[in-house]
């Protein structure tokens, strides 16, 4: 059954050919392969990622070819979706901010069975370790000739490597002040970066179309830095953006932080929700004029009406891997804002919200339920919550098909939403 995972297209397969029911303990011997597709780019790539193994760095081993046959996916036992045993320190890192501390690993651990695999992206083992297999394409900051947007990087914390990339569109006059938009990239909290060519290209287009000064946050990734690290890094980036004492000269001269927006896609849109919750709870937290959630990654322990049962099962597995200490597992309010005990959707710290989904995204029903919860908030004025759905498209399609008509329509809708204020 084809399903979607945050940021990337996902199809599920089982590596064995036996379709007969098995006892629960035998299901744990299966290899589940997640075939994820992502846009390919011709730009320069990072140098090959390294894998920490024992006491030294080594090049990652190529994926072994697997012969798999699509078949009906059985309902796996629930404990697979809620726990990952701890396994010290074998992870691929694409930048210094995502490197785990060295740790000894036995030969048995390094040869452990694969639980989830995204060929070319990441491989997660049953013991808990992960290989990051992707070599993300990288775009340096600078002038983008196609849009006229100029970008540059600012390091917020030299110790952690957390940084932001600022995007300044063409100004009509030198003293012009622009709305400020803080953007959070997707990638299931496992992959992605602000300087990835896919996101760099999209944010350039967004800054130009909407006429906004963008602060794109580059946060640390799981599993080397389990959640809430990414949330904390993004909260620090948001606070840096609005704090006069730390503001960058571009923001000080050309940014109007009184017109502050948040936006993100997939896991990045999940971060947007968490930032709104934190800002609402903080005594002097920033107040956003608007928030744009592009195909947000939300899940739960159980499927909701209209949602394939396999979707929350696999999303729960990824969530428990990225956030092993989550209270309530996949019903943690950060991944399931509709769960009992979650913060009220009436109290989110923004005046307006645009929630976007794709018709063929298996997350669409849950995204719609989130939108309906926000729109029903008693404190919100009529029309304060808006819905936009892209017909015939799938999760995060606009990142890989930036020139298609529906991607342009989505970008136009986001720009119009920002201009409405």
Automatic annotation (TrEMBL):
The gene is LOC123399411. Pfam families: Abhydrolase_3. Residues 181-398 form the Alpha/beta hydrolase fold-3 domain. The lineage of its organism: Eukaryota, Viridiplantae, Streptophyta, Embryophyta, Tracheophyta. The active site is at residue 266. It comes from the Eukaryota. SUPFAM superfamilies: alpha/beta-Hydrolases. This is Alpha/beta hydrolase fold-3 domain-containing protein. One of its GO terms (molecular function) is hydrolase activity.
């Amino acid at each position: 059954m084809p399903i979607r995972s945050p940021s990337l297209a996902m199809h599920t397969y089982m590596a064995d050919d036996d379709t007969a029911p098995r006892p629960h303990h035998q299901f744990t011997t299966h290899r589940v392969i997640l075939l994820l597709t992502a846009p390919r780019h011709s730009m320069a790539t990072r140098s090959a990622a390294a894998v920490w193994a024992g006491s030294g760095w080594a090049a990652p081993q190529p994926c072994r070819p697997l012969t798999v046959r699509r078949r009906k996916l059985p309902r796996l036992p629930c404990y697979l979706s809620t726990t990952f045993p701890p396994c010290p320190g074998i992870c691929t890192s694409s930048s210094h901010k995502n490197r785990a501390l060295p740790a000894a690993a036995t030969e048995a651990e390094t040869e452990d069975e694969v639980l989830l695999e995204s060929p070319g992206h990441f491989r997660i083992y049953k013991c808990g370790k992960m290989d990051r297999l992707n070599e993300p394409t990288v775009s340096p900051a600078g002038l983008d000739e196609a849009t006229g947007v100029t970008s540059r990087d600012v390091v917020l914390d030299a110790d952690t490597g957390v940084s932001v990339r600022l995007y300044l569109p063409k100004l009509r006059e030198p003293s012009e002040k622009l709305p400020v938009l803080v953007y959070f990239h997707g990638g299931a909290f496992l992959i992605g970066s602000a300087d990835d060519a896919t996101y760099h290209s999209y944010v350039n287009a967004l800054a130009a179309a909407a006429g906004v000064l963008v602060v794109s946050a580059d946060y640390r990734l799981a599993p080397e830095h389990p959640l809430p690290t990414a949330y904390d890094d993004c909260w620090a980036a948001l606070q840096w953006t609005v704090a006069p004492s730390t503001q960058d000269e571009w923001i000080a001269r050309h940014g109007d932080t009184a017109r502050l927006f948040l936006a993100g896609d997939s896991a990045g849109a999940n971060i947007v929700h968490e930032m709104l919750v934190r800002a609402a709870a903080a005594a002097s937290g920033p107040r956003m004029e608007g928030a744009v959630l592009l195909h947000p990654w939300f899940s739960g322990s159980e499927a909701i009406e209209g949602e394939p049962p396999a979707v929350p099962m696999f999303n729960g597995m990824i969530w428990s891997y990225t956030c092993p200490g989550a209270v309530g597992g996949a019903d943690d309010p950060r991944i399931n804002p509709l769960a009992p005990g979650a913060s009220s959707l009436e109290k989110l710290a923004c005046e307006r919200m645009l929630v976007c989904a794709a018709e063929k995204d298996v997350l669409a029903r849950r995204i719609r339920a989130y939108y309906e919860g926000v729109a029903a908030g008693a404190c919100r004025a009529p029309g304060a919550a808006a819905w936009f759905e892209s017909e015939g498209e799938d999760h995060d399609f606009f990142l890989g098909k930036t020139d298609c008509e529906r991607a342009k329509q989505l970008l136009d809708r986001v720009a119009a939403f920002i201009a409405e204020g």
